[in-house]
Amino acid sequence: MKRLLLFLILLLGHAARSKKTFGPPQDGMRHAAETTSETNETHRCGGIQAATIRPSKTHRSRNAAVAAAIHSVKTHRSRPCRSDTSENSVRQPTINARNTSTRPVKSLTMKPAIIYMLEVLVCSGVLLAAYAILLERRVKFRWCRLYLLLTTFAAALIPLLRIPVWPGRVVAAAPAIPPDLPVWTGEVLPDEGGSFAVTPEIFCLGLYLLGAALIAGVMAWQVIRIRLRRGAEISRTGDYTLVRTRQEIASFSFLRTIYVWDKTPAGELAAILAHESSHIAHRHSIERILMELMKALLWWNPFAWIAARRLTEAEEFEADNDVLSSGYDRAEYMQTIFRQLFGYSPEIANGLRNSLN
Length: 357
Hints:
Elements: H1 2-22, H2 25-43, H3 59-78, H4 82-90, E1 95-96, H5 97-102, H6 110-135, H7 141-157, E2 188-189, H8 200-225, E3 233-236, E4 241-245, E5 252-254, E6 257-261, H9 266-281, H10 284-297, H11 302-325, H12 330-339, E7 350-351
Parallel strand pairs: 1-2, 4-6
Antiparallel strand pairs: 3-4, 5-6, 5-7
Helix pairs in contact: 2-3, 6-7, 6-11, 7-10, 7-11, 8-10, 9-11, 10-11
């Protein structure tokens, strides 16, 4: 009996100590809720920071706090932050049209233009080297003239062609767009100023047009300057028109007209007329005009200027060959050429003094 009473006393004391140590279960529930709110506040809208969980008074409150913290971390990783999403949706880029409206659309940028010029130079150099090695003074002069005209034009045309060397299968692939990126919309603002920006493309284009206009203007001035019929003796034949002017000039021909100095000796006049009539028969003046036009368009290409000079030489050699083939003495003909060194003779015309080349 004494033992039973002693056991009951010990049991009641142990129960009283347990109640005093752990406290009521409502305090543990409240502490778990506070720990859960602190953990959510720690992980809201940012990186996972080091959150410390306060020690609970009961094992149940500890388990609830740990479970709430793990659930909060998983929820934060799976769903984006509300504040970041709202900021991305509100902040939208604004496109200012002041800079875009003052600059022209770049249809031909600097890099493709420079590449095109280099390709034209390479083509012109290769074709002109082939002429010097294979054709010059080796074939008939008309083939040389035709080659020089066509290759000068072809050198500017070949780089513009796109010829596939080895055609392959074309695979169309759509660009990959990340789904997480926000959609950017823009608002175009009106241009308030009327300023015009000079870009490198505009500067190079203006420089090219200036050079082409200068070369074409010089050619036009040479044609206009050929006004030697005032006070001159004009005689027309079936093949050409002879103008014997009072101005001291070197004999030349342009289109179907031959210009000579009226004090030219009669012994030299026959060889001069034979030479210039050969130019008219072969239509050398038209070829010179076409070459001068291509020089104006390709004035930056030195090979175009060399080809124009080679064309002049081929025309003069052809005219000299016709004169000598008709029976004129070579020594007398050379003296006639030397006497034609002085006097006015436009570059666009076919002059006898060019035969010295």
